[in-house]
Each structure stands twice: as structure tokens, then as C-alpha cells.
Amino acid sequence: MLFTGTPMGVMVMIMIGILILMGIVVNNGIVLVDQINQKQPALDKLSGEISQVCISRLRPVLMTVGTTVLGLLPLALGDTQLGGGGPSYSPMAIAIISGLTFSTVTSLYLVPLCYQALYRMRYNAAVRLGRANSLSRRLMPWAY
């Protein structure tokens, strides 16, 4: 605020917009991961199942983002202050619109990639743990 010369009211509205944006983005990610978890894919079919879930979630995510962006467009284009003396809502709307367009693309690509990487890591760790467990049973049968 001091460095950019931006008034305090504008910064508060941008921060509120970012909080709203975080809620929408997290919701999209949770729904995507939940649908992948409901499928419970095997490791060899993981990529195909994730692709199918992403394709099935594409339309609802785009509809949510589209309606939100279209609803906030008049607020973003106008620089009026609602109620007269309050802060302008334009920075909040611009923050939400720009964040939604960026996060839609990244969440539809990054969330599945991260899920796949973590799923493979968990699978590999379980395999290693199973091997270590069987080795310890053979080496120390008295411990079990």
C-alpha cells in the first residue's frame, strides 16, 4: 500500500476478492479429487480414470466460472461506489475474474497431475513397506 500508492479501501476490496476466489477454487479442487477417489482406480488405469473425471467435470466448472465472470462483469467495468460513500467494488471484481480464469486452467491441469504423482508415491511406499515387512518377518520371526 505504501509502495504502490494504492488507497487502503482498494486493497481491502482486493483482499476480499481473493478470499472469495480461494473459496471457489478450493471447492473446484475438492470436487475433482472427490470424484477421482470415488472411482478408486487401479494404478494401471489411473491416467485414463483421471482423464475421464476431468472431462466430466469440465462442463460444470466452466459453467460456474462463466456465470461468475458474467455476473461480476458489470461490477468490474463500472467504477461506481455502491451506496454512495463506500469503496469501489471494481478491484474486487477484477481480482475474482482474473483469478478465476487463471485458476480454472491450472486446477484442471495441476490438480490431476499432483494427484497422480501423490498416488504413485503412496503406491510405491506401500510396496516398499510390504517388502520391508516380509523381510523383517523372515529375519526376526520371534518379534511377531
UniProtKB/TrEMBL annotation:
The chain crosses the membrane at residues 12-33, 54-77, 89-111. Signal peptide: none annotated. Gene3D superfamilies: Multidrug efflux transporter AcrB transmembrane domain. InterPro entries: Acrflvin-R (IPR001036). The keyword Zinc-finger does not apply. Pfam families: ACR_tran. GO terms for cellular component: plasma membrane. GO terms for molecular function: xenobiotic transmembrane transporter activity. Keywords: Membrane, Transmembrane, Transmembrane helix. This is AcrB/AcrD/AcrF family protein. It comes from Shewanella benthica.
